[in-house]
Amino acid sequence: MISDDHLPTDTKTRILDAAEHLFTEHGFAATSIRRITADAGVPLAMVSYHFGSKKGLIEAVYARALGQRDTSRVGYLDRLEAQAGGAPIPVEVLVEAFITSALRLTRKGNISGAVFKQMIGRAFYEPGAGVEDFFPAEYAEAVERYKRAFMRALPALAEADVVWRMYFFVGMVAYAMAGKDVMRMTEIYALDEAGNPEAMLRRMLPFIVAGFKAPSGDPGLTGAVRLADLPA
């Protein structure tokens, strides 16, 4: 068995830190195990020893970022459902729970919300099949669990309506966590909280709740201006 007792403290953490940085900066495919171990200052064999493979290392990077189940989105939902005793959880509570778990990522010392968002983007959009499979099972479970909880809280909405609203919701949260302002509206109007993801997410909460509670949308945009009718 390989021993790393002679190496600087916590070899596993050094590898995770180096991998997290390199995956974010260069992507999964362009980052070699040799480059990771060189940056971490550890022997090449340590990746196999601690993680088994590059895929195992990527999974570990995401698992560390997402945290333990009791502080994760699923963990929050477990506690809320226990407190509800079988009754639907109010929309306001579900939205706040999801945002609270997102805020946890912005407070972590080892990874920022912006870095986490970049890694999420890499997983879904980087060329190469199957990268999205590197997410821990908790991530996919959270999406499905919250979908079911929102459907129970909003029985008048079709499943497609709930899923679309979750899509918009998650996108807004990711945008706020990234700390970027593509439209520059916060500069035009001098919004002091624009650079503070926590403040932005808190301001977002009533807006998101109202969106979830809005009447079902009409895909045909009946009675409204259609995109196809707008001038080019």
- Poorly predicted segments: 1-8, 221-225
What is the average per-residue confidence, as pLDDT, rounded to a whole number?
76
Question: Could you give the order of the helices and strands?
Answer: HHHHHHHHHHH
Which structural class best describes the helix and strand composition? Answer: mainly alpha
Task: Name the shape in a single word.
Answer: globular
Please give the domain count. Answer: 2
How much helicity do the residues have?
Answer: 55-70%
Q: What's the quaternary structure here?
A: single chain
Count of DSSP helices? Answer: 11
Count all strands and give the number: 0
β content, as a range? under 5%
* Gyration radius from CA atoms, angstroms: 21 Å
Described by strand count, sense and barrel closure, the largest sheet is: none
Termini, distance in Å?
Answer: 67 Å
What does the model show?
The chain is 62% helix and 0% strand. The protein is mainly α and 232 residues long. It has 2 domains: 53 residues, Homeodomain-like (Arc Repressor Mutant, subunit A, Orthogonal Bundle), CATH 1.10.10.60; 148 residues. Helix 1 packs across helix 2, helix 5 runs antiparallel to helix 6 and helix 6 packs antiparallel against helix 11. It is globular, with a radius of gyration of 21 Å. The N terminus is likely disordered.
